[in-house]
Amino acid sequence: MIVDGTDACQVYDACHEACERARRGEGPTLIEAKMMRMKGHAIHDAAEYVPKPLFDYWRRRDPIARLEAYLVQKKRWLTAAENEKLIASVESQLEADREIAVNSPMPAPESAAGGVYCDSGCHQIKPSTQCQHR
Question: Which residues are catalytic?
């Protein structure tokens, strides 16, 4: 199925329907969520090859702003003031956590490879004897 990937409600409904189909034993569902990546392919890519009107169109369809407007204006789950207070609280917590991270000591360089590869004994891969190709 194809949905507007900037509409959280459409994405939720499609995913919910796909899960229900799977639970009924009707197989998997492919969901194509149409939206646009708002940055280039990498940090050095300013995406200057994308026409400005296209960026403007998709910027107006920002999924976070759309969901926020839906929850505050249509569903009225929060007032505008409650929403602003919630956002300020989250930003304050993020800033406090950022300060902890910035002020924490750097890890030892030799620890950089830790946890990257499976250590011996983390799990065993046993050869299969079911397939015998010669």
Answer: 37, 41, 49
